[in-house]
Q: What sequence folds into this?
């Protein structure tokens, strides 16, 4: 299996960003910035993978202490911090609450953001978009018309010097020559489009900037804090699935870096404040009856979705919670966001190549590392950070439907 791994890595043009701030895996004595590579190594050697997401820094913080600074001010500080660090900032925008809040942190505080890019598979939109009454994840493309487009129209008025870029990633996806090794170009998202969606040099203007040597930031709205009640205590934790959102392949360039607006060790007061804001709301006597939404563990998709809708207005005060948004996809391999691809391109070589990539993963990685639905692998299991204690909770768990992966 390791020979197969080396064969692909020796024959594909990939340069994985080795950025510890985004997280990394250790398998025995080896360090990996690629989750598929780490799990293949684990399968080969028997060493269980460990995920490190700024453990040393986050482990040293006084998590029980709530920062006094208000969230809007912390968002402004984060935007200014990034502005001072980079020559050029490009925000990846989908129209959702996370990316919009990152955008507002710049624009509403008069801090210049150079570019906002929206990724959309224009070639594949036939029969699968522009339905405002359907919020299933299969209708994700409608977020362009009813969420992202209004945001970009607002941006054009309030920050006219910011470049707005539309990137049709389906062009490269459908026209290029690819093989099953495409799975090494992503960390955790193995639906057909993700490998092509966030390339660092997607359009000519991006290549020109990279070749000029400017310090470029690809900025992501990652992510809302993950909090839970475990053994009558409040905790914050991180999960690698969200931290693996960025495209790991920076190609031959050394002057571009992925940054997460919220999950950053560079301004930890931000996520500490968010976590305490959520904890304080759920600890109110009027709201304690909803604490089951944050019990640990909780595999209820409906309860996690409800939790997210509750916390958006708490931590994103400038985001309009009535904005159109489809439901979150249910898995990685057969992610409903790429319904456009499954609908319009089944009888193609690229469809077969996508499936071959999934087979490569399931052939080379121990079955225990897959999430399954009705016995079929649908994605890689998530790995967790340490739990950071925030304070005590009064919640009494009934003990029903408690399940653990390992």
A:
């Amino acid at each position: 299996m390791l020979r197969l791994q080396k064969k692909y890595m020796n024959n594909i043009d990939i340069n994985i960003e080795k950025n510890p701030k985004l997280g990394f895996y250790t398998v025995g004595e080896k360090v990996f910035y690629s989750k598929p590579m780490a799990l293949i190594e684990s399968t080969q050697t028997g060493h269980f993978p460990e995920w490190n997401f700024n453990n040393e820094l986050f482990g040293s913080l006084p998590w029980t202490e709530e920062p006094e600074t208000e969230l809007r001010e912390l968002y402004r500080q984060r935007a200014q911090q990034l502005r001072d660090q980079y020559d050029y900032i490009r925000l990846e925008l989908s129209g959702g609450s996370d990316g919009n809040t990152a955008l507002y942190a710049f624009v509403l505080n008069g801090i210049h953001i150079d570019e906002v890019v929206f990724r959309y598979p224009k070639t594949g939109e036939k029969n699968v978009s522009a339905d405002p009454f359907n919020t299933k994840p299969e209708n994700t493309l409608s977020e362009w018309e009813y969420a992202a487009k209004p945001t970009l129209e607002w941006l054009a008025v309030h920050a006219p010097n910011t470049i707005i870029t539309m990137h049709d990633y389906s062009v490269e996806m459908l026209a290029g020559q690819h093989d099953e090794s495409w799975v090494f170009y992503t960390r955790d998202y193995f639906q057909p489009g993700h490998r092509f969606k966030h390339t660092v040099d997607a359009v000519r203007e991006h290549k020109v900037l990279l070749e000029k040597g400017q310090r470029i930031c690809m900025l992501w709205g990652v992510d809302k804090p993950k909090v839970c009640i475990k053994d009558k205590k409040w905790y914050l934790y991180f999960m690698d699935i969200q931290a693996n959102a960025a495209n790991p392949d920076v190609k031959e360039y050394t002057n571009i870096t992925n940054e997460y607006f919220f999950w950053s060790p560079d301004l930890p007061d931000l996520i500490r404040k968010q976590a305490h804001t959520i904890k304080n709301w759920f600890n109110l006597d009027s709201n304690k009856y909803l604490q089951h939404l944050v019990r640990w563990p909780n595999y209820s998709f409906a309860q996690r979705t409800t939790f997210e809708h509750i916390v958006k207005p708490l931590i994103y005060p400038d985001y309009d919670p009535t904005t159109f948004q489809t439901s979150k996809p249910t898995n990685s391999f057969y992610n409903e966001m790429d319904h456009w691809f499954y609908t319009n391109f089944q009888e193609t070589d690229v469809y077969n190549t996508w499936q071959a990539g999934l087979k490569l993963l399931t052939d080379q990685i121990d079955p225990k590392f897959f999430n399954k639905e009705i016995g079929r692998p649908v994605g890689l299991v998530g790995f967790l950070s340490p739990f950071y204690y925030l304070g005590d909770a009064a919640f009494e768990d009934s003990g029903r439907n408690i399940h653990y992966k390992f």
Summary: The radius of gyration is 21 Å. The longest strand covers residues 88-92.
